[in-house]
């Protein structure tokens, strides 16, 4: 086994190189992820070089980290593929966040299809950007087949793209396991659209053939172009942007905005920071989901230059229009806190103050179970300050109260991503997984709580825990873990 300990200098140079090339940022809280990803990559290249003649042809002999770094600087594609595979989070499943697919169907596609029929233009263009192993793009294809009885007469361009070649290979194969169907919406459709072969589910050819896949690094300009020059009606870019450095996010959002046709929609994940205000995308809420629409007649703006990605990771976003968002005076208990507007103050500090104010408003409403307002204010807080931990955590609690478990888990993921050592979100995640019957996940989270609280002094207060101590949280986690011994995924005794 290769041992890789990243010195501070190595950490800095790999972090910068990877950010520049892929947009993926590994701030100090994720240094361990970078280290273990590089360790796996190095071992994989060395094994392939030693034992697989075919692979060895495209790989260099690497004796350690320095060689790995040089191979990346030299842009060796086979080495980059391995490193990207080790560093990207490829978690996905069919109809992930089913409410978004229902919202898309009922509020975006139905009117759009009716309008296209009226005009005699039977065509639609959809893009799953950061599609991982393809479930998202194929979910769109299934949705369209269900909506269009005459789908074969339409020109349907559904494109799935990703940076990770290994994921794209899996997407092309279109062979999945049970785990890809954990959403009820997906399970209901499995029999109709897949053949089962032992434990595998193979997508039927008439759906598979509707989607094209290709490699695309969102950090480079890879906007899909169609031969007729038309732009996209719908872009899904979910659970991708949250892993990018701040300036990269701004750059990618601008590209996505430009790729949309006027009136087209961008759909991001619950944990992704929403588009910054400099893009004229307008938030549109439909029951429980919010999408971002390119206005039909947008003012022409000059596109921001590609950020200097070398310097990208430290910079915080210029608040621009965000500075006009409201701040609040201290909350009184009987009525909503008064809102004061900050005008003309465009400093990052003003954005932070406004975010704090939005968060407090969100908390105030959450304490009173005004879920809609609480959600709105906490989302605004995370938009203004994407690293506002308590706002992400409160969002998770709000989604949990609304019964939106997937969204709650995503918000907890953002929280954990920002503060690896904070035990409380792991404990909350365990509860949600348990209620969903995901006992393995729940157990893993409880073990995280035990690990993290072990590192604290017993009477240390848990942040955000209203006086809860490390010792109490520790024993609560141990008790729950004990309760779960012998339970299988369905919650039955094993
Ligand atoms: C967590 S998956 C999201 C999959 C799917 N969109 C979903 O929400 O279920 C994130 C994907 O983003 C891809 N990704 C990361 N950086 C990227 C980049 N610079 N360009 C394109 N894709 C990228 C990763 O390879 C990974 O497959």
Describe what you observe in this structure.
By secondary structure, this protein is of the alpha/beta class. The protein folds into 3 domains: 8-87, no CATH class; 98-293, 3-Layer(aba) Sandwich (Rossmann fold); 320-484, Tetratricopeptide repeat domain (Serine Threonine Protein Phosphatase 5, Tetratricopeptide repeat). The protein contains 18 helices and 12 strands. It is globular, with a radius of gyration of 23 Å. S-adenosylmethionine is lined by residues 22-24, 88-92, 96, 130-132, 136, 162-164, 167, 216-219, 238-240, 269.
What's the short story on this structure?
The protein has 494 residues and is an alpha/beta fold. The chain contains 18 helices and twelve strands.
Helix content class: 40-55%
Number of structural domains:
3
CATH topology of the largest domain: Rossmann fold
- In CATH, the homologous superfamily of the largest domain goes by the name Vaccinia Virus protein VP39
Question: Which ligands accompany this protein?
Answer: S-adenosylmethionine
CATH structural class of the largest domain: Alpha Beta
Runs in which pLDDT lies below 50 for 5 or more consecutive residues are 307-346, 490-494
Distance between the termini: 35 Å
The largest β sheet comes out as: 7 strands, mixed
* Secondary structure category: alpha/beta
List the total number of helices: 18
Could you outline the blueprint of secondary structure elements for this entry?
Layout: H1 8-22, H2 31-51, H3 53-56, H4 65-73, H5 77-87, H6 98-119, E1 123-129, H7 135-147, E2 155-162, H8 165-173, E3 175-177, H9 184-193, E4 194-197, E5 200-203, H10 205-208, E6 211-215, E7 232-237, H11 246-259, E8 260-268, E9 282-286, E10 289-293, E11 326-328, E12 339-341, H12 348-367, H13 371-384, H14 389-401, H15 405-418, H16 423-435, H17 439-454, H18 470-484
Parallel strand pairs: 1-2, 1-7, 2-6, 7-8
Antiparallel strand pairs: 3-5, 4-5, 8-10, 9-10, 11-12
Helix pairs in contact: 2-5, 12-13, 12-14, 13-14, 14-15, 15-16, 16-17, 17-18
